[in-house]
Fold these 3 entries.
Entry 1:
Amino acid sequence: MNQFIDWISQPWPWYVAGPMIGLTVPALLILGNKSFGISSSLRHACAICIPAGIPFFNYNWRKEMWNLVFVLGVLIGGFVATTFISNPDEIVLASKTQADLTALGITDFSGLMPSDIFSWENLFTAKGLVFFVLGGFLVGFGTRYAGGCTSGHAIMGISSLQWPSLVATIFFMLGGFLMTLVFLGPLMKLVGF
Amino acid sequence: MKVVEKNIQEVVCDAPNSQTTGEKGLALVKYLILGVLFGIVFVKAEIISWFRIQEMFRLDSFHMYGVIGSAIVTGIISIQLIKRLKIKSIAGEEIKIPKKEFRKGQIYGGFIFGLGWAITGTCPGPLFAQIGSGFTVIIITLLSAIAGTWVYGKFSDKLPN
């Protein structure tokens, strides 16, 4: 048993994780005739808590409770994996990425997230404003405008051979490349790295 | 045989629910379990890591491309099998995959999400797994993402689409 725990505590390779994520597609279809998509949960949260008479949030969200239950599961899964089968070693990062990020001012490479950025101390600072507030806003606004995120478009949409999802995915990547390779450096300098 | 069914739903959602019968209480537990498994994979494959997303956008590692690519291949094969073998859902219904219509939002919105993806290092799924993993400050990112969704909903009819 201990050997098994040690074994699954190592980081899982892409060829294990990818197919497992892909299997979520048929699992949801067969379990409940549901299309995979996670950003919808954010819309349901709006529809439940702050619909404010906006037509976009006026729909039968009770029928979509499954989606919120699913993301609650994702949260619990994150807790389970981190608490019971967490990788004891530091994350192994490509040396070029590590060098580039060090040049940008990142110093802590020990966990899955850099504590230089993602800590409560940064909440009411320029770092927090950019990385939590602005970043989160762009994710929420952009995914809803695009009608889906990596799960709804890149995985579910392309898997069902729908070209609009391929277009969306190409623009996800373009936005990401532009931010990472062009804007991120100046932005980090601006917020005090 | 058409792979994609026409979307007849009033609400166009990226995670449409085609099941006709309602599900409450214990019937929802299966989605919870599926979510837990999914969250575990997110953490163990380090998809929730801001570093891994940086590697992906810097083209320094194949890992994320392998994950997303093999997930898509698995999805394509699964959907083809469901269609060709006419597999039904456990409620006995014909499985429907609503069509996604092309809109300009997939370009503008997709690009905006991409910018946010590179800043936060997360898409909406890993957000929840990050919070569960103890990065509790990501609750702020989540609230901001919900706010972004709300602002889109508020102004959706004024945006080019």
Entry 2:
Amino acid sequence: MDAIILQILNGLDKGSAYALIALGLTLIFGTLGVVNFAHGALFMIGAFCAVTLNKLLSLSYMVEDPTRTDFLGKPLQVATPYVHGWFGEATGEALIDWSVPLAILFSIPVMIAVGFIMERGLIKHFYKRPHADQILVTFGLAIVLQELIKSFYGANPIPTPAPEVFRGSFDFGVMLGFDPNAIIYPYWRMVYFAFSALIIGAVFAFLRFTTFGMVVRAGMADRETVGLLGINIDKRFTIMFGLAAAVAGVAGVMYAPINSPNYHMGMDFLVLSFVVVVVGGMGSLPGAVLAGFMLGILEAFASMNQVKAIIPGIDQIIIYLIAIIIILTRPRGLMGKKGVMEE
Amino acid sequence: MGILEVKNVGKRFGGLQALNNVNLSVAENTCHAIIGPNGAGKSTLLNCFVGKLIPDTGSVMFDGQSVLGRTPYEINQMGISRVFQTPEIFADLSVMENMMIPVFAKRDGSFRMHALEGMMGEKDIVEKAEAMLEDMGLANKREMQASSMSRGDKRRLEIAMCLSQEPRLLLLDEPTAGMARADTNNTIDLLKQIKEERDITIAIIEHDMHVVFSLADRITVLAQGTPLVEDSPENIKGHPKVREAYLGEAA
Amino acid sequence: MLGLNKKDTLLFWIVAALALLAPFILNPFPEGSSLAQMFNAGYPDLMQRFVIFGILVIGFNILFGLTGYLSFGHAAFLGIGSYSAVWMFKLVGMNVIPAILLAMIVSGVFALLIGYISLRRSGIYFSILTLAIAQMCYNLAYSVLGNPSSNFNLTNGETGLQLSLDDARILGESVTAEGALPVTNFFGLAMRSSYQMDVGGWLFTFNAGYYLSAIIMLVSFYVSIRIFRSPFGLMLRAVKSNQQRMNYTGLNTRPYILAAFVISGIYAGLAGGLLSSMDPLAGAERMHWTASGEIVIMAILGGVGTLIGPVLGAGFNEYFKNILSKINDNVLHDWLGFLPDGFENLLVGFLHYFVGKGWHLTLGIMFMLVIIFLPGGLVQGGQRIARLFRRKKNSDETQQTPAE
């Protein structure tokens, strides 16, 4: 029992990331009809927002520390972050420590801007082009963004720690009444899951309870009819794109402590997120979320040693296998609606 | 017993009863028109004949065989060809290539792997396609790209493509919708000619009464998914129920 | 000739001439000059890549160019072909022909299987499904089926599958008399053997492997022309143009697309088999989905749906990749030395991101520009330029007419 709960928990953080990316992909696909191969790049840019903020806050100048000396007997040169000087040492240190959560605030305007520029500057011109062209141009964009990040930040992963209080793990099993050390779970993964649930809830609430969201949902169901009502749907869809970019971005920011950001993380997540979207059903938002968590958890189960002993390497391919089975048995995915993307 | 027998067909979309207990019989070698106000279910009915939709209830028999559950290409192989509201042709291909495809389909069936044979070696196909273009007055546009033709010529090509398959039933979905008067008249003349020269049954959905009364031998009036009346054109013209259905739409 | 019309025959001979004379054409600069170091490309391994990737993209074009179905997982077949060929070398013999045949058969079977599943859906779904299935193949090759310690080690994982001194071949020896690995050969002609011709300052290399690949490429090209011009090719173009009309004309589109998919898979397997024949080493990275993306890029650069496009695209991509990756900061300083110092450094600092290790970025940008402004690729670009000249000539003529 405890092993099962542990694996479910282990699947939650990846599942959350899949769900958030797939949610954005579905929003863009449902509203604009574009399959965005650059969506993984948005996730990656989000993660690098965290890296950037961390680096900015840690920018330092050299001061002499008269209390300590180096091996030549001169006063030691100590790097002091500017923020220490501006806000005092305690506040400054706290700012650096909390750079990842702070990066959410930093990333939202950045991501919305990136989203707007992408949609207005590039994707807008491809609405009337064939789907293949849309895939290709966003794929090209994904390469360019990824290579730009690589040339500025290098090819190696950059460790970006979570705040001090969230580092380490806690014994989740004891809380549920299991033996100690049965379920050890890192704090930050719990935070990530809670955060994702919050974002997913917020997106659904936004679509459900605001007029804006109602129009967008109507547009997803039938674009032409909504257009006939005289509502400027294009403008709303642009905003929608910015929103989807922001969702992918904050998902990336918060993921930075779990996996050190590198330039190809976006592409790695993108392929799996596509599978998630297909399994969930193209165009279905609840389907994307459900499939995201489901596949994340199944992946965790498949990486258990007991499972791998029976079928070696199953953890590497389980997601794809499930996608193939779903497509063969339910071609529209788990929650796909009829008529979405069919001939 | 008609060549197309529709019995008790019903189709529901969510809360909307699009078709309700439709009965229809199209006699062989006649032109049967289905008319009715917008939203009467004409296109839905047509889609049930060609395999695009499967009705919830009832049966559709073509020449004694059920078409339900068959795919569009199988139904076409049975002898039903369809002309669409906006001409569905191979826009990127030349007129001649457009013409050859249905001729190939007629000869070789739904799939044949002739990957290394030259096109011009297929003498019978080329001849038949050329003859058809000649017949339809499209011979001089042979090498033109289909997308660059006028709307009227596209319609003509589409009809030619359908006819080259020698279908027993030709379905026309508002063939003159959105056409200028001259093009409409041309199309009427073309269809009249086809009717006279060939052993073919035509079922036509149409809005334009001028077209309907020039062509139809028999008319069914559909309103809110149910047939109101079925009669000869002369009797339909003065029928009170028909006037009501159409005036209702106007009001 | 050979059942081709005049225009296609001419095209075929142009490609044949380019391929057979490549050792001359690609080495325009005398050996040892600085221009040669940068721009000469007449080296056996590079020339082999030109024609082998040409084969790959020619095959991809039969699927994407004709039917419009965008496969994002074609590299899987390249990898499967590579592995099959290496296994043939390990188990049977070092002759390349059986290896290449096996590569084609195995990749064809995989293409049938993958195509059958992917073609359950069309459009975007198809692209995503091919992508996912190919990525699964990559994972299988990279880790699942490549565990060196397990009994069932098909791919040798990260290291890649290669020959070893204890391979028990049915035909031929495990180790040569000199104690080395035997080399791949075509009925005794070693693939790596070359003949070098020294003319003045120029050095031309004629490599057996290159010529075998080039001849196979020409055969592939010829077959692709035949397919383009056949009734089958017509049906494939019809699929791209209007599937609805296909269905209502009594044609079942799925077997047509599946056939195209299998054919292009076999082409990719052939290319993979050839790669292994030139260098008997097969790695999983050949199957990664970025490799599939590169196939798409090559096809687009050249011109999708045209006959010559794939050959051009593959050559162009490989050539520029080669040059761009050779340029480093020193070379840039050399070239821009005539500029004022500060400006030179600034420019070099900027260009630094686009050359050397940054060539991916340049290719990505080029790819985007082509899709945005020149969806027909190099072929369309050529046509536009030709039209421009023709129009200029025409207007010249009309201006001259009144004077006469």
Entry 3:
Amino acid sequence: MKVKIRQWNGVASWLWVANDENCGICRMPFNGCCPDCKVPGDDCPLVWGQCSHCFHMHCILKWLNSQQVQQQCPMCRQEWKFKE
Amino acid sequence: MEDIGMEEDSAEISGSAQKQGVADAWETVTNALMSPGGPGPEQGLWDSLALLSGEGLGRLLGGWLLETLQMRLSSAVVPEFWAELQQPENELEERGRAWVLLTAFQTLLGRLEPFLGGLERLESWQDEGRGSVCGPGPGGLQERAFTIIRALLLFSPSPVLQERVLEFYSRTFSVYMHQEGQAEDGAEAPEGPEGGVCPGCGVPTQQCWCKEALEQLKELSHILSKLQLLEWVSCEAVTSILHKLIEQRMEQHCRGEYERSFLLEFQTWLELVLGWLSKVFASEAEKDGLLPAPGAPGAPGAPSTPSVPSTPCFQAGQPGSSVLKQWRCHMHQFFCRIYVNMRIEELFSIIRDFPESKAAIEDLKFCLERTNQRQQLLTSLKSAFESRLLHPGVHTSDILTVYISAIKALRELDPSMVILQVACQPIRKYLRTREDTVRQIVAGLTGDAEGCTDLASELSRGDPVTLEMQDSDEEGADPEDWTPDPTDAVPDKMGSKRRSSDIISLLVSIYGSKDIFIDEYRAVLADRLLHQLNYNTAREIRNVELLKLRFGESHMHYCEVMLKDMADSRRINSNIREEESRLSEEEQPPLSLSSIILSSEFWPPLKEEKLELPPVVCQAMEAYTHRYEKLKAMRTLSWKPHLGSVTLDLELEDRTLTNLTVSPIHAAIILHFQDKSSWTLEELSVKLGAPKELLHRKLALWQQHGVLREEAGGALLRGGDGLSEQREEKLQLFWAYIQAMLTNLDSMTLDRIHSMLRMFVATGPVVTEMDINELEGFLQRKVREHQLLVSAGVYRLPKAN
């Protein structure tokens, strides 16, 4: 007996490779999107800081914009630098 | 005036001397009053009258006359009347009875005529100012006299009178209607065959007394009117006749017939009936019409003299008098009431047939507005729903269908929607208790439910403008346009503005919130998307767009993301496919894998099942994941091994099964049998990481295909290459069935044979699914072996010898 698979249609869900479930700023799941967005994934990406904390990009940008003096990670208060 | 004064003077001069004269004068006057001929005013009479007045006796005259009338009535006239009426006990036929009725009244009139004449005379004297002769008391003398007549005559009426009157009127009615009907048709009265029955009077044609009956009717109504008994004697009979006839006609014409309107038809018919009424109330009508009734009624049986010249008034069917106007109103009222009664009884069926029964609904609406039967309608409809619809024997989708029809029908019937709201309350309440209501509604909305296309079309008809209007409750409503709710409206916070007639809103509001529907829709959508292989979402996109108009953008947001996932997945798949194609031959993946990639937060929770896929599949998935990670930085995939579908070919020793589409677990099972031909359920369960019960269920598919078989030992399974003989045996068993079928039914198509076999197989001991292709092959072989003939797709057995 020989089985020949012509086509395998699988189902998978995508997820961010992040060390946390939820965004520390908006408290929404990373796999969802920030409150201002409608569509997750490409349209509402995550960014990582050098401190290894990550946030929805829109969330952290908003946070950074609101900081007058120094730009810090909202979680660990280190200076925020985007991780390359 | 002067004349009177002089006479009074003379009476005073000569009065006191002649006491004897008073008695004589009384005699003269009373005689003159009662004399039937009605003598002209003579001087002697005037003198006597003057004398009596002078003595103050004038005013006793009226009293005396009434007294005499009363005496005469009770002692002779009334008993005579009743005796005459009842006299020919059950001996006469209808025609005779009609005659007796008429004569009885004629005699009555004859007996009373002198009194009536006397009364008239008295009144005219009074009017001429010949002294007050009518005596004290309210009302005219005549009026009092008629009251006395009525009182004494009808004090204890025998039922025979009503019976006779009813019978007589019914007869004249049918005669009249028959004649009018003919006139209407423009057809000459056909001379019935010898011994035929006249449709008017219901006797053999040569004895037809139609004409006579009408004459009698005229006469009778005249007498009755003269005695002012018309109303008292006829009304009841006429009312009951009208009632009966309208009812009868409605039973015959309208019951069960919902597709055309009957209002006009009945209107014409009622006008015709009014013609008959005008005959019954001819004299009354003419009195109102200010046409003085000429003299005594014509002698009975003198058909040629139209003694009552009232017909012109009514010929056009236009009532010229208030009596007829009244009756017309009555009839109209009867009609409406009877119609409403009948339709209320039938309302459930009308609703069920709704778009076809629109005419009936419109009629009912017209009539219902004229009667006070809303409450009755509500009660009846509610109980009809409860007894015919809301019980466990009715499928939810059928309840919904009726509910939708009810919404459509009742919003026609009652634009205020109150009936709809109240009558359908039980349905809504009941639907809330059914578990599959939401599913059925959603299926209806997406056009999946068979037979229930209303919702889908309703959805696509959705008019966002009107929907928004419903949402913005306070604004835009002109206070001038406000109308109060009908009295039977349920007092609730919503108010009439919120009383929606929109089918979808009504259905959705059964549960009070849209969320539950949207969740259900999401589940249905997820199910559909995951089970279709072609990523074709055009229909779903359309549905979601339409639902967005209904439920608002934000509610359908999740569904939109789901649809976007499908589009994204297709793009990613083709991306990855392209990348793979650039690889060299040996690097090609062993398995063509594509995937639906979900945004897990936006999909409904999918059921988790554990399943270890064979290594070859796992490797392919890993490779896919790897490519995905390259494509989308910092993202990875989490596979749901049990979801999806697999298309595969199965090469067995004796045959090949191609293009089977199965679920991943089926594929995983059969893949394991490729390497090792027999497994115990235990082993398989460990290998696949799936519970045994589940596996056992899934194995059935392969058993049905004859690929696997369960050994007698129970636990042992065998990947079968040597199954063909067993298969052959089974087919031979079928052959016996097929032969028997063809012997009995002569010829059958392949499909027919297949479905018949399936039926036998289902009931027989061998639980094996037979593939139709396999069956065809088998039958073809039989054809080659000349055991079977085939022509134009129809199989038959060859003729014996």
